[in-house]
Specification:
The structure is a single chain. By secondary structure, the protein is an alpha+beta fold. It has one domain: Brix domain (Rossmann fold, 3-Layer(aba) Sandwich). The chain contains 8 helices and 16 strands.
Length: 355
């Protein structure tokens, strides 16, 4: 996606504690599944700065992810969500309680999810659930402008935790950016796998930067599409070994988590919302003052300096210059004394000569 507004609004949305009478039609209540929201504008400079920081940007900060449980979960799903939370580290928020009303594939079931993501400013979410019809169910999705953008439902067939690879002594540095590799032409031909690819890129890419230090590339995230519905997700750590040349030999060691996923349902973004989310602002080049170009396409700068009075400027004086001045003064005095004696005039006192 382009410059998205990942769960941000130009003003703060908070829960209202006022009691509101909810009408009933046919015995069914029309109460929303999430608390009512009201719009509050900034009243102080500090609040205005906070809202400006939450406003949409041309180059966004790293998207935070919300990890939460559904109505029922299994031990496998709990371990998967824990590993996804550890991979994001400081860019992830995890809920430990069950959420019965969070059902993104049912009409109205996304309202509670949108409320939570607005409240803690998260643009990504990972929802885990378990049922007889859909065992070990994992839903990955994105939020745009406080609304559900899209989501993909995956089934966990096999999982190896991060702790199972801890004996190898592998790990990633905090804040490092991974290399992300997608293997298989189905990521370009199938619509659902295209959406999964875009979601995984948003989930693992982290903060957008202009340049990357090669020493900071310490892990690889690889997704392989074996069939139309089976995707293997692996993560490897990068080790640089001696090769006898200036170019080191690269060795990949699996560091976890290891997931075998089956693609189930997906919810695509509406056409209008997708068009709005993919808009890129036109960033004009910032004008540089006092800088021009010549005929040879070179850069020419202009420097403005005030008039400097060198005569009255306090400058440091070297000892060697003082010695030369004393010698010149002594020679001048001797020459004056000789000329007076030669002309028969009396010599002046030292004080008079100095005057």
């Amino acid at each position: 996606m382009g410059a998205s507004k990942a769960a941000t609004l130009p003003a703060t949305m908070v829960a209202s504690n006022k009691k509101i009478k909810i009408p009933k039609i046919g015995g069914e209540s029309l109460a929303p599944s999430a608390p009512a929201l009201k719009l509050i504008t900034a009243k102080t400079r500090r609040g205005r700065r906070i809202l400006d920081a939450r406003a949409p940007k041309a180059i966004e900060d790293a998207k935070k992810s919300l990890v939460l449980y559904g109505n029922k979960t299994s031990q496998v799903i709990k371990e998967v969500l824990t590993d996804l939370h550890k991979v994001k580290r400081t860019e992830s928020v995890k809920f430990t309680r069950k959420n019965e009303n969070v059902k993104p594939f049912e009409p109205g079931g996304e309202s509670s999810l949108e409320f939570y993501c607005q409240k803690i400013q998260c643009g990504l979410f990972a929802l885990g659930s378990h049922s007889k019809k859909r065992p070990h169910n994992l839903v990955l999705g994105r939020i745009y402008d406080g609304h559900l953008y899209d989501c993909v439902e995956l089934g966990v067939e096999q999982h190896k935790t991060l702790q199972s690879f801890a004996s190898a002594g592998t790990g990633a540095q905090l804040g490092s950016k991974p290399c992300i590799i997608f293997v298989g032409e189905k990521f370009e031909s199938l619509t659902i796998l295209k959406q999964l690819k875009s979601t995984l890129l948003d989930y693992f890419r982290g903060e957008q930067v202009g340049s990357i230090n090669l020493a900071g590339l310490d892990r690889v995230v690889m997704a392989t599409a074996l069939t139309d519905t089976l995707v293997l997700l692996r993560q490897y750590t990068i080790k640089l070994k001696k090769s006898g040349t200036r170019v080191p030999r690269i060795v990949l060691r699996e560091m976890g988590p290891s997931l075998d996923l089956t693609v189930r349902r997906h919810r695509a973004a509406p056409a209008e919302l997708e068009k709005e989310a993919c808009k890129q602002p036109k960033l004009g080049k910032k004008k540089e003052k006092n800088v021009g170009s010549d005929l040879l396409s070179g850069k020419v700068g202009r420097i403005y300096m005030p008039k400097q009075k060198v005569d009255t400027m306090a400058l440091s004086k070297m000892k060697g210059l003082k010695r030369e001045r004393r010698q010149a003064t002594g020679e001048r005095k001797q020459a004056n004394a000789k000329s007076r004696l030669k002309n028969g005039r009396p010599l002046k006192d030292t004080a008079e000569e100095e005057e």
